[in-house]
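# step 3/5: fold
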Amino acid sequence: MTTRWMIGLAASGLMGLNVAMADSEPLSRESLARCASQVQTLRDESTRLTRESTALDRRREGIEERSAQLRLERENPVQDDLEAGLDFRQRQIEHKAQTVAFNADIQTLRDQITALNALKFDYEQRCAKRAYRRADLESLSSEDQSAMREGLGDVKVPYIDPASTPPPQSQP
């Protein structure tokens, strides 16, 4: 019984080795070009999305400050001043519209980050740590060659955790 088990283990190990060897075949020229394009997209888009995320963080802070100000005014209304009441109501309406627009922008950013993370996953599965022929690399544009040489080691794709960054409330 032990001998059969060892033969089965050795055979499954060899089969795994064949799968690993198939995965490590050099990239074709077309695949290498696609991988280089993915690297460039990931580099450009991660930088852009990080900038947008930072800008949205600043917008969120502004919206939260305005919410606090409007909440304070609502708790301490100016008595018998119709003009002040109308002005306050108008600012509430504008604030709600800004908050709704902000939430739409956050959702757009989340969708873009999700798509970029899918592209990164695809790159990691199909391109990362794969060999390629020098002649195929040299046939690429200089930008594509640089992209393949640089890889993604320093690329940070932004991430938004929906649980830790709830959108601001639309009500002040």
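# step 4/5: annotate
DSSP finds five helices and no strands in the chain.
# step 5/5: archive (pending)
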